[in-house]
Amino acid sequence: MDPSTKKTAISAALVMASLCFIAFILPSIVLWLGNISPYLGGAAAFLFVVGFFGIFWLRGRSRRD
Questions:
Q1: Which of 24, 35, 44, 58 is deepest in the core (most CB within 10 A)?
Q2: What is the model's pTM?
Q3: Which residues are CB-neighbours of 58 under 8 A, at least 6 positions away?
């Protein structure tokens, strides 16, 4: 494995680990925000989904150059 591939694999693993951790605690966050306002709970879930796909969209755009 060359250094470039190794860096890519490590960064992908870190991104996936952080997304899995956030997905693990997301129900608690949504319920907590839902007690304040149902719209805040929905916004937190929406931001997670948009952020999930946004990361990979940005990655694809940076690789296109």
A1: 44
A2: 0.73
A3: none
